Predict the 3D structure of the following.
Amino acid sequence: AQSVTQLGSHVSVSEGALVLLRCNYSSSVPPYLFWYVQYPNQGLQLLLKYTSAATLVKGINGFEAEFKKSETSFHLTKPSAHMSDAAEYFCAVSGQTGANNLFFGTGTRLTVIP
Amino acid sequence: NAGVMQNPRHLVRRRGQEARLRCSPMKGHSHVYWYRQLPEEGLKFMVYLQKENIIDESGMPKERFSAEFPKEGPSILRIQQVVRGDSAAYFCASSPSGGPVETQYFGPGTRLLVL
């Protein structure tokens, strides 16, 4: 079975501050991990994904995430928050043999304070 | 290259009516996934289809819900005799091939409100 836990349903940061969104996964097989961003009333857009090629994954809009197997984590970071980063962020996992669907966390709403 | 298209974007139905949600995948994509997002929750997988075939419907409610992806035309998610608990955002995603590592590209969603 696979699942994802996102700690902190709401995160607020000041503009220019570090963004850290937490994601821990549970998987009985080597996981593939994804971060998606959702802007209000829109669909999900892929930020980045981990496919076992490299543990540090760089994505769009200056975001990156590090896969840490020992901690079963895949936290999303950005060195300096921008107002346009305000959105909902979802971590997801896949990888179960024979299954193609993604298992999503409950999301973290990021607020950027000017 | 147009993205995943969904229509309608908003749908209002009264209890007992039918809801039909449409999804046109990205050009060249033959794999379609449907997810449901309840208020304040993450997305939950419903069904995975390839052209003319349902591959995995493990997330579909056993009654009232059905999905198809015909040889020609969009994928359809059909909800019969809707109830208030069906109110949610329904997202469609597509990918060029199957497999857990494939990126799924999401449409803007259909927001269903049942009165």
